[in-house]
Every structure is written in C-alpha cells, then in structure tokens.
Write a structure and sequence with these properties.
- It comes from Infirmifilum lucidum.
- Pfam families: Zn_ribbon_RRN7.
- This is TFIIB-type zinc finger domain-containing protein.
- By secondary structure, this protein is α+β, with helices and mostly antiparallel strands.
- It has a domain at about 25-55.
- The chain is about 40% helix and about 15% strand.
- It has one helix at about 35-55, and strands at about 25, 30-35.
- The chain has a two-stranded antiparallel ribbon with strand order 1-2.
- It is elongated, with a radius of gyration of 18 Å.
- About 10% of the residues are buried.
- The structure holds zinc ion.
- Zinc ion (ZN) binds next to β2 and α1.
C-alpha cells in the first residue's frame, strides 16, 4: 500500500507566516492560510489606496 519513498511529509504547502497546512492562497510564490493571506491582501490594497490618494489628492 504505502511505499517508503513516497512520504507525504513536506509535500503539503504550509502558510509562510503561521505554518498552517490550511493554505488557500499563493502570493508572490509563498503560501498563506486564509487568516494570514487576508492580512497580506488587506495590507497590499491599503498601500494601493494610499498611493491613489497621494496621486489624486496630493
Ligand atoms: Zn497563516
């Protein structure tokens, strides 16, 4: 059934931040779980908004 050369250990992607195996997103080549991925996306979009504000209001 199981061959020794085929271990699943290390095969599964883990969240880069917290190490969770429950990854849902790959950002910049790194895996992230829902919680950490959301944080990164929010942080990223906030930077975009800030740059827009500088562009149009500054
Ligand atoms: Zn995480």
């Amino acid at each position: 059934m199981y061959s020794q050369s085929q271990t699943s250990r290390g095969d599964r992607p883990r969240c880069k931040v917290c190490g969770s195996e429950d990854v849902i997103a790959k950002i910049n080549g790194e895996y992230y779980c829902a919680k950490c991925g959301m944080k990164i996306v929010l942080e990223h979009s906030r930077k975009i908004v800030e740059s827009y504000e500088r562009k149009y209001l500054g």
